[in-house]
Amino acid sequence: MSGKTGRSTIAGPIERAFLLLQAVAASDDPVGIRELGRQTGLPRSTVSRLVATLVDLGMVSRTGDGAVVAGAGVASLQPRRGPMHASLEDRLRPLLFDLVERFGESAALTIDTPGGAHYLSQVPGHGAVHVPDATGESFAFHTVAPGLVLMAAWDDARLDDYLSHPLESPTGLTVSDPTHLRALVEEVALTGTAWADQALDLEVAGLAVPAIADDDTVVAAISLYGPAYRLNAVDRPNLASDLREVVDKRMAILLA
């Protein structure tokens, strides 16, 4: 892509976002904000704002020097051999309904993005007491059960980098001490399950397990969450193993 070629006349935010995606995807090397502005004809302030949103969505990511590269989410926009496969959300959402029917709590699908643990989809539970719908929101990985599951799949370098930064503590029950959090992530990696007891919101608890593809990569986290008084390991000691068993059995079919 070269020059401005009148592209600054594109006014809509969706069109501008896709214009930026095209510029990033077309480049073999990381692209700086200034260069993206030059290629697209968009003001630098607009480029910076849209790039920040695209980072949160996992469509692009930043390198150590602030340049932009295509993110994992871009792959979902590209056709493969034959018809385009359904999105991850479409393929796993039926599982969420099954989990709600089986366990009675809200079920959610969460993915790993540079902006945090991003909730792609949620199916509300049937109970009289519900927790807020988190669909479309991203949270610090260590504050939610699916985030802990996703962290357990990281390599040492990424985990070390995450733990080197100040970690927020939304509640007094959030595990934010780097040493304790590292130990917790190691435990999650061993057990394949993660509990988060009121770590993000008081009175709300979550339980998550990994969604593992055929090549043993963690593609997402599947979680249950609801009021802490009824969703906890003390009152439901078999829930973690039961959830892991159901998800493991269904993944081979859903991701085939």
Features:
single chain; 256 residues; alpha+beta; Arc Repressor Mutant, subunit A; Beta-Lactamase; 6-stranded antiparallel β-sheet; 8 helices; 8 strands
Describe the structure.
This protein has 256 residues and is of the alpha+beta class. It folds into two domains: 7-77, Orthogonal Bundle (Arc Repressor Mutant, subunit A), CATH 1.10.10.10; 88-254, GAF domain (Beta-Lactamase). It is 38% helix and 18% strand. The chain has helices at 13-26, 33-40, 44-56, 88-103, 145-151, 156-163, 178-191, 239-254; strands spanning 60-62, 68-70, 106-113, 116-123, 138-139, 194-197, 204-212, 218-227. The strands form two sheets. A six-stranded antiparallel beta sheet has the order 5-4-3-8-7-6, sandwiched between helices. Strands 1-2 form a two-stranded antiparallel ribbon. α1 (13-26) packs across α3 (44-56), α2 packs across α3 and α4 runs antiparallel to α8 (239-254). It is globular.
